[in-house]
Amino acid sequence: MAKVFLTELLEEVEMSDVAKVSREIMVSVEPAYVNLRRFINIRRKLGSVVCFDSGGFAFLSGKLKQLPNPLRTVHVYKALGYTSRDFLMQLDIPPYFFMDKERRLEMIRKNAEYYYIMKSRLRDAKLVPIIHGWTSDELKYSLSLVKDPDEVGLPSNIAVMAFGSYLAKTALKEVATPWNSYEMAKSIPVKLILDRLVSAYNILREYSVFQLGGGQPNTVHIAFLLGAKYADGSGWRFHAARGVVYIPGYGLRQVTERGHHAKRISAEEAALLKEAYYESPFRTMNFNKFYMQLKLKDTFRRLWNAWALKYEEKIANEYVNDPDRYFNYLLRRFTKAHPVWAKRLQYMYKRIKQPYVQSKLTVFLKTNPMR
Length: 371
What we know:
371 residues; alpha/beta; two-stranded antiparallel sheet; 14 helices
């Protein structure tokens, strides 16, 4: 079954209501590098299955001043009290897409080294390697390194592989980036991101894929259509803070008077929201009061969006075993609510059905990126 892990901040999990709507939660351990004592055994307060992210972006962006150390990450994971059900993401430092090829390959090798160091000390844990690269050749090279059976005598039968989608960079007016630069992140050609995504899924067909950076409903659905088994989503928090709500089975709409992060909700769309409300745990509240709370309170929008994203997971599981039917459903839905995503969906699905191989960044620069 397809599963969405709702991404919550480690420092907020004790106060968060997200566990009320999701059994699957993802947290970055970034704050634990600074104050580990505060979070010892915090796993007891989380969901049924937890994915711990290493916080590698924080090292890359300079938010964490210490050097990345896989042994330190192992120590943090153990102190937080992970269980045998949990996923532990390896410490990884993503290569910049604008780096020269040799520098990218060097970082890919370093990430593989980090994985093996961690795996040698977490043999019984579900440690997930993260594949990197901006070309098909680089992605294949990254995969070959982490499945090398000669490394420290470790088994090569890895069940789950993860990679970052970067799809959020094509969807948001503001993005959190490992480069600490919104303009730099937005300079990545959309076509490059889409082609990279297709290449990754074609390469990882033998594995259960955990797509990182799923973000919001549209990108999560695309992940599941292309072959992901797991995806994380942090957009529910991001969008709630900016006055945007999720309408299950439809899309994203702005409900606050201020804000321009999505189209403003229409009367027809408000009616669709009301239909979803009747299927939700919020239906015990008067609808007018419910709608007013969505307009006024960030915390209320967060909880609604978290529930709505898990509802999208339910929709995905109705279609995921029939890709053509799933594609047609998403195409109808995106064409109505998010036409740009309909074009991207068609572009990727055509290539996942007939694998598209692209190995040189220069080719992307010679073609017009998708609009």
